[in-house]
Structures are given as structure tokens and as C-alpha cells.
Write a structure and sequence with these properties.
Layout: H1 9-16, E1 27-30, H2 32-44, E2 50-55, H3 60-67, E3 71-78, E4 84-85, H4 87-93, E5 98-104, H5 116-127, E6 132-136, H6 150-153, E7 157-162, E8 175-178, H7 181-191, H8 200-211, H9 213-235
Parallel strand pairs: 2-3, 2-5, 5-6, 6-7
Antiparallel strand pairs: 1-8, 3-4, 7-8
Helix pairs in contact: 1-8, 2-3, 2-7
């Protein structure tokens, strides 16, 4: 038999508990975060839409909208701004027909983090034109700052995550999308033509990992700190 089409109830419940105010029915399981990003862009972006994407970032976030016929403006990160893009420049880029702003928090490749105050101002800018914010959050769990998920600060925020990076389980290819009920309903229809379901055993491993996610994150943070210390020493 096929597995659970949207992810098992246990998986969806565990993922929803990683957020504040998110219900299991707002979660859709995907084939990694890559599958989640594709699903969101495929389901919401149409020819003629205007999309703004953080740059540089994971290539999907600016090239897939372009391939779907959207006009894409790149919102450049700045070294002098802690490798974050300037919100004033976003105000210059945004248009009445801006459909979506794509971000990556923490950023790949720089590791720069948008904290709560930054995200709240970003959400305020997006709300002026009713734009979605798609946030790829696969590295968010490593940050020690106050970094909420975009879905916790903005109603039209769409959070993407997976077990691949901070949870060290890329091989099972399990990710998810968390969004409001309206967006989830749209993506639910498109999802049937991109994935159907994850593997039954992959879902089981994902459930086991999520049941022990604090221990996994603690282990991985320790490895990260040790490796960064070695790297710093080597650079010196």
C-alpha cells in the first residue's frame, strides 16, 4: 500500500509542535525541503508574477520562479550589514504585484540569521502588498538567537524545513511545509502531482527522530562547536 499521503498523523503532530500556534492539518510532508520549496513555488507562482528573492541563497528560490515565468528581482545580501540584505532596499524593490518574497533563514551560504525584529519588519513590508513570504528554514534550529519561524510572525508566511540538515538525516528525504489553512489547501492539490507520499519506513524514522529531536540537536550543536573551533585554529 502507499504510505500516508500527507505524512502520518504522528509525524504531522510532532512537526506542528515545533511551532507556536500551528495545527497538524497545516503540515504537509514532502520529499525533503527541496520538494517543499518546489511544491510552494509550483503551487503559487504563475507567469507574470513578481518575485523577490534573497541572493545569494539556495538556487531553487530564485531560479524556479524564473522558470515558471515570473519576473525575479534579487535582494542582495551585504557584508556591512552582517551578511543580511537591507530592508530599505526591499522597500525599493517591492511592487503592488509582488506575489512572493523568498528568504533563507539561517542563510545558505553565509549563515546570517534574521532575528525576530528583522522578520517582523519584513512581514510588515510584505503585508503592504499582500505578498507571501517563503522561508527556507533548514538551518534555523542551529541559531541561539531569538529566531521565530516565519509562520509565527506573518499569516502569509510559509515555512519550509526538513530532517536533512540540523537533524542529520538527509538520506530519508523527509521535509515539510507549514502554512495557513488557505495555502495548505492549495498546496494539497498540487502535492498529489509532485510526490503522492513518502516511504513508509522513511516516515517511521522521521517520527523516531522528532520524538528525540532535542537530543539530536544537542549532539549536532556539540559537533558543530568542536568543528568550528578546529577550523578557527586552522585559519589562525
Amino acid at each position: 500500500n502507499y504510505g500516508w499521503i500527507e505524512g502520518s498523523p504522528a509525524f504531522k503532530k510532532s512537526v506542528s509542535q515545533l511551532y507556536t500556534g500551528v495545527k497538524p492539518e497545516q503540515i504537509l510532508q514532502t520529499n525533503g525541503a527541496t520538494g517543499a520549496n518546489l511544491l510552494v513555488l509550483y503551487g503559487l507562482i504563475e507567469p507574470g508574477d513578481h518575485v523577490i528573492s534573497l541572493y545569494p541563497t539556495y538556487q531553487q528560490l530564485y531560479d524556479i520562479p524564473k522558470s515558471l515565468g515570473a519576473e525575479v528581482d534579487l535582494w542582495q545580501i551585504e557584508e556591512g550589514n552582517g551578511w543580511l540584505p537591507d530592508l530599505e532596499k526591499l522597500r525599493q524593490l517591492i511592487r503592488p504585484n509582488t506575489k512572493m518574497i523568498c528568504i533563507n533563514n539561517a542563510n545558505n551560504p553565509t549563515g546570517a540569521v534574521m532575528d525576530r525584529a528583522y522578520l517582523e519588519e519584513l512581514a510588515e513590508i510584505a503585508s503592504e502588498v499582500g505578498a507571501y513570504i517563503l522561508s527556507d528554514e533548514v538551518y534555523r534550529s542551529f541559531s541561539e538567537l531569538d529566531v521565530p519561524s516565519i509562520i509565527e510572525v506573518y499569516d502569509k508566511g510559509i515555512a519550509v524545513n526538513s530532517l536533512s540538515k540540523t537533524y542529520s538525516l538527509p538520506g530519508i528525504r523527509v521535509g515539510w511545509v507549514a502554512a495557513n489553512h488557505q495555502v495548505t489547501d492549495i498546496l494539497r492539490d498540487y502535492r498529489d502531482y509532485t510526490m503522492i507520499c513518502a516511504g513508509v519506513f522513511d516516515d517511521l524514522v522521521a517520527q523516531l527522530a522528532l520524538a528525540h529531536y532535542q537530543e539530536i540537536l544537542e549532539r549536532n550543536r556539540r559537533i558543530l562547536e568542536e568543528n568550528l573551533a578546529i577550523l578557527d585554529q586552522w585559519i589562525e
